[in-house]
Specification:
single chain; alpha/beta; Immunoglobulin-like; Rossmann fold; 2 domains; nine-stranded mixed β-sheet
Length: 441
């Protein structure tokens, strides 16, 4: 395999695919259009940042807005006069961080929605809000030894792939405390050795989609996709909706790291990587882990824990910098800081630190592609970029200026294009193409 060679493109030089203006539906019929002062939404410390607002003649004459630093600390709340059809909202930060603009109506009582816009200031200098726990590495090393003491006992059940060129199977592995890993595996029907890809899932309780692995196998991957829960992967939706063992799962064991729901989840992903690396049809060279949201959260942890991971691809990974609210920075799913406050139990926050992606990031030497949404309140961008900054291998950020946590009107296309370019190169054993403007709008 050709050695990977990248350079970290400085934020001021990123050219993005999705630079369209934001449309704020703050009136029932006519929108207000927002355009960032800098099209990338990236600014230097002390630089003026903001948005130009344009309202059509039949649009609102005023809007209410709030500016928040790092998605939590209010910088300003005001009503803006749009009677001329134009106005500007400006601010600046004297340190690295994020700014979130929230527009909530037209100020004239005609109702309307809630619209967000975002900016990042010197994001390449962002750091986590708290240091790693002193025994973080030692504790995880002990957990992995416990896992390795349990034979995986793989059970592989062949199934129908729906493709003449792809083999498909269900996989079950033994995990800690009598639990299991449940997944689906696909590989090309012809050939002996393949690069391996582990796909980890976002939050929720639901069946897996067969196409997640079959389409990757058609591209040449030995692809494994696992449930985050100890549940079969292919049951009807009602089965998952009515399963009591996973109700409010993110809060299960949150007061004790040994009982946290995320311990079994993370070790499931580790076991899945071990399984791929032990298969005789793995090429022994390329082992990639990827995921979105909670799947990205798990993926960062795996890239920091598992020594054989060679590349990491994540979009809007959750849970990055969960101690942020203690320091004026918003945290997203699962919000352990909020639970620690509402339940008056600081141990919840202490437990969460052992599952926070930022604390795995310093050990990541694999090549990393990391995307963050500027409007994301589930995975706030400051925490995601803080994790990226700690990674020590080749890395590329994909700032998505118009994206919240989910794709809207192609807002996550920059990551989709870059991740496909990375995977196309990695499956061939080639160097990943350098960052640049993806084709199209």
């Amino acid at each position: 395999m050709t050695p990977l060679s990248f350079r970290f493109i400085r934020p001021r030089y990123f050219r993005l695919a999705a630079l369209g203006w934001l449309v704020a539906h703050v009136a029932s019929a006519q929108p207000v259009v927002l355009a960032p002062l800098h099209p990338t939404g990236l600014y230097a410390v002390g630089e003026k940042l903001g948005w130009e607002l344009t309202a059509p003649g039949t649009g609102p004459t005023t809007v209410r807005y709030t500016l928040k630093k790092n998605g939590l600390t209010v910088l300003r709340q005001d009503t803006l006069d749009l009677s001329s059809g134009h106005a500007t909202i400006e601010t600046s930060l004297d340190e690295p961080g994020a700014v979130l603009l929230e527009i909530t109506g037209d100020g004239g009582g005609r109702g309307g929605g809630r619209t967000l816009a975002g900016a990042l200031v010197a994001p390449e200098k962002l750091q986590p809000s708290s240091p790693r726990p002193a025994d973080f590495d030692a504790w995880w090393e002990a957990k992995i030894r416990e896992l390795h003491a349990i034979p995986p006992k793989p059970q592989v059940t062949p199934g129908e792939s729906g493709s003449a060129t792809v083999d498909y199977a269900l996989v079950q592995l033994d995990n800690i405390n009598g639990t299991h890993v449940h997944g689906q595996l696909a590989r090309p029907k012809t050939g002996d050795k393949f690069p391996a890809l582990l796909v980890l899932q976002w939050a929720g309780v639901y069946p897996l989609q067969k196409s997640t692995v079959t389409r990757r196998a058609a591209q040449g991957w030995l692809a494994l996709n696992i449930e985050p829960h100890d549940l079969p992967v292919d049951q009807p939706a009602a089965f998952y909706a009515n399963e009591p063992s996973v109700k409010n799962y993110q809060a299960i064991g949150q007061e004790d790291r040994e009982k946290s729901y995320f311990l079994r989840m993370y070790l499931s992903a580790y076991r899945a990587l071990d399984y791929l690396a032990a298969r005789p049809d793995w090429d022994g060279k390329t082992l990639v882990v990827m995921g979105t949201s909670m799947g990205g959260q798990q993926s960062i942890a795996m890239a920091g824990l598992h020594p054989q991971v060679t590349a990491l691809l994540v979009m809007v990974p959750s849970s990055c910098d969960l101690t942020g609210p203690e320091h004026g920075r918003a945290a997203g799913f699962p919000d352990w800081a909020r639970d620690a406050r509402t339940k008056h139990n600081p141990q919840i926050l202490e437990t969460g630190r052992y599952f926070d992606p930022v604390n795995f990031a310093p050990h990541i030497r694999a090549a990393a592609l990391v995307a963050m949404g500027f409007l994301d309140e589930t995975s706030p961008p400051a925490g995601v970029w803080s994790a990226l900054n700690l990674m020590t291998g080749p890395k590329e950020a994909v700032p998505m200026i118009n994206s919240g946590h989910q794709d809207a009107n192609g807002s996550q296309r920059p990551y989709q294009l870059r991740s496909e370019a990375w995977l196309a190169a990695l499956v061939r054993g080639a160097a990943v193409p350098p960052a640049g403007p993806p084709p199209g709008p």
